[in-house]
Every structure is written in structure tokens, then in C-alpha cells.
Amino acid sequence: MEKNTAFLFAGQGAQKVGMAAECRGNEQVARLFDAAERIRPGIVSMMLEGSQDELNRTVNTQPAMFIADLAYAYVAEETHGRPMAVC
Fold first, then answer.
1. What is the rounded CA–CA span in Å between residue 3 and residue 87?
2. Which residues 6+ apart lie within 8 Å of 36 measured at CB?
3. Beta strands in 1-87 (DSSP E)
């Protein structure tokens, strides 16, 4: 990866049911989803197949976005290497 590459995480407002679904085959993401479920049971199924209204509630959006962003970062890191910065 280029020295000047950074990962920029999306924030509230970017949530969408099904986000990070394509990352499920990644081993680190599977562990992340397992850990998220232990901390907040039901959060992963809400992200992947829940209702948009439920996901839009801030109490759900914030942890779901963090989980999705981290999942995408794990996949990108495997593909492109470690970034210089994460925002």
C-alpha cells in the first residue's frame, strides 16, 4: 500500500441494512461479528437483515456503523495492506 493511504470510516447516515454482508467470509470479520454478538446480542442480524427503521435508531446505528466500518477495514487491510492512518 502507498505510504499516504488512509482508511476513512463512514459515520451515522451511511447505515444500510445489509452493510458488511459481503465481508462475512473473512476470518477476522467472523470473529468481529461473534464478539459483537456477545456484547450486543442481535446487532449483526439487525445489520444484515433487520429493518431500516430499527437500524436508523441512533442507539443501534452507532455500534452497527463501527462494526461495519471495522469489517470493511479488515478486508481492505488484507487486500491492500495496513494504512498509514485511519479516520
1. 15
2. 43, 44, 63, 67
3. 6-7, 85-86
